[in-house]
Design a protein that fits this description.
By secondary structure, this protein is an all-alpha fold. The chain folds into two domains: 68 residues, no CATH class; 37 residues. Helix 1 runs antiparallel to helix 2. The chain starts with a helix and ends in a 6-residue tail after the last helix.
């Protein structure tokens, strides 16, 4: 069972903040989860299929994909606080958030050793 689904089930049976709103909250959380996964998947499917959009639509699709991924990442960090300390969950979130930047820096450093025009 995934952590997000487990938290939604917990909210359903525990009743969340209001004991009468468990079902509504479960439905709302499930819709948020499906929506944010859908935002990330639309970008992955567009890139994998080789579809080339106009630059403005490409930027919009990329931005929506990043928004969906950021929502899932922050939700996962919030749920991780149930199992581990808050500091460890936030440290993991910060590490995951800066990994793409380190990957780009590593790539540019690697390419600069091979091709001098990357040094500028």
């Amino acid at each position: 069972m995934s952590p997000a689904w487990a938290a939604s089930v917990y909210v359903l049976f525990a009743g969340g903040h209001h004991s009468h709103g468990g079902i509504k909250r479960l439905t709302r959380d499930t819709l948020w989860l499906i929506g944010s996964v859908g935002l990330g998947l639309q970008w992955i499917l567009l890139r994998a299929s080789g579809v080339h959009l106009a630059p403005s639509w490409e930027a919009l699709a990329s931005g929506l994909g990043i928004f969906g991924a950021a929502f899932l990442l922050s939700w996962a960090a919030e749920l991780a606080q149930i199992d581990v300390s808050r500091s460890l969950a936030l440290a993991a979130l910060a590490l995951i958030a800066v990994m793409p930047e380190y990957a780009v820096d590593l790539y540019l450093a690697w390419m600069a050793a091979k091709e001098p025009h990357y040094i500028a």
